[in-house]
Design brief:
By secondary structure, this protein is mostly helical. It has 5 helices and 3 strands. A 3-stranded antiparallel beta sheet has the order 1-2-3, with helices on one face.
């Protein structure tokens, strides 16, 4: 019984060390609205990176929302788009959130 407990403790410690030694490369890498995908071997469109770009452009224009706030709350993303969506970098991402988009639907 004592050997099993010792083995279990050793295995748990080894697993903890192995997991904490994983490289930080698991972090999502964005370039504009695209995300690096090693499986595809290139940059692919990503809602995560698009939302980060919307937040960045909105902050450059005076808003104070974080990337996480824009990603997690569609109402904040819509507000950020209305605030800075005319910027060419995010105009296509913000399609549907801009005031002129609402006018074209009512015709």
């Amino acid at each position: 019984m004592k050997k099993t407990a010792t083995f279990t403790a050793f295995a748990g410690a080894f697993l903890f060390i192995a997991v904490s030694a994983l490289p930080a490369s698991a972090e999502i890498k964005c370039q504009g609205s695209t995300q690096w995908n090693s499986a595809a071997g290139g940059w692919i469109p990503s809602p995560y990176c698009e939302d980060n770009l919307v937040a960045t452009v909105a902050r450059e224009n005076g808003m104070r929302w974080s990337n996480a706030a824009v990603r997690k709350n569609p109402a904040i993303k819509a507000e950020a788009c209305r605030f800075a969506g005319s910027d060419i970098r995010i105009n296509d991402i913000c399609e549907g959130h801009l005031p002129e988009d609402n006018n074209s639907r009512s015709r």
